[in-house]
Amino acid sequence: MSKMSRQGRILLCVFAVLLQWQPWSVASATDLVPPKGYSVGFTATTVDGVQTYVCSDGEWIKRGSSADMTAADGTSLGTYWSVYNKETRAIDYFWSIRNSDGTRIESGYPISGLQASVLRSFVAATSAVSQYLAIIKIHRYAGDAAQVAFVALTGTQGGLPPREELCSSPTATADVPFAGNFTFYNQDRQPPANLPQSLTPKANFVQVVFLEGKVMYKFTKSGQWLYRGISATIRDVAGGNNLGKFGTVKKPDASGSKLLLQFTDPNGFFLLGQKVARPIQMSADGFGWQLLKVTTSGGFV
């Protein structure tokens, strides 16, 4: 291993940073697509899907759902289910994906497991349950779904709760049939093509990582929001392994840089950098993409 000493440029893939997505009350199917940097990995269609409701205080409350899934060629792909989380008071979503024969042997696992939470949803039809875009929070095992970062449910049919007058017992439950299509989006291994010129570095590409965190602002006396910094966890993929942290530090280096990438796995190294171009907002609800120049580095790679 060699000590990292060369200064260079690093493309900070802000497309992979999950910031505070805005809840949308009005949307179309095209909005249930992740930002650039993610591509369709595979798709599935639900089979024998049901939405589960529980009667509570004269109202039907959604408590989960389940379905089998088939791949585009009609073969069994796995199972899907969702359950109500009492701690978070939200519904968690799960997928169990059957690994292909080769992946099963290579990974040692028969399935790839995904757990997600919804980022945004909307009602596309008054006769069907909501469609949604979810982000992966936990990967389990390994295999064909290892690079999945987002899952979209579209084309929903049915699944709405029964009539309220049928909710007459506090112990009553109802399983209502529903159908829909899943699109699984993989995290790209290369930066998006056709980046704006100001965000295109004159350097060799090394690696894409996923950042999940928050941007901090302070509301000033003049009535404006002032940017205060950023804090995020570095992962290999959404819901994947924790590789370190990224964020604004209080003490800058000799060049005035205050943005730190600290990698703790596998060997440990750090980079301090600063913006070399004006951030460009690439989507309506996303933080601006940035290009950083590395001014200080250390550790081993």
Description:
By secondary structure, the protein is mainly beta. It folds into 2 domains: 119 residues, no CATH class; 150 residues, no CATH class. 2% of the residues lie in helices and 51% in strands. It contains 1 helix and 16 strands. An 8-stranded mixed sheet has the order 1-16-15-14-13-12-11-2, with no helix packed on it. It has an 8-stranded antiparallel beta barrel with strand order 3-4-5-6-7-8-9-10. The chain is globular, with a radius of gyration of 22 Å. The N and C termini lie close together (6 Å). The N terminus is likely disordered. Keywords: Signal.
Order of helices and strands: EEEEEEHEEEEEEEEEE
Average pLDDT reading: 87
Radius of gyration (Å): 22 Å
Compute the number of structural domains.
2
User: DSSP helix count?
Assistant: 1
Question: Keywords for this structure?
Answer:
mainly beta, 8-stranded mixed sheet, 16 strands, 2% helix, globular, signal
Q: How does the SSE layout of this entry go?
A:
Blueprint: E1 9-12, E2 17-18, E3 38-56, E4 59-70, E5 76-85, E6 90-98, H1 101-107, E7 111-122, E8 131-141, E9 148-158, E10 173-187, E11 210-219, E12 225-235, E13 242-248, E14 259-263, E15 269-275, E16 290-299
Parallel strand pairs: 2-11
Antiparallel strand pairs: 1-16, 3-4, 3-10, 4-5, 5-6, 6-7, 7-8, 8-9, 9-10, 11-12, 12-13, 13-14, 14-15, 15-16
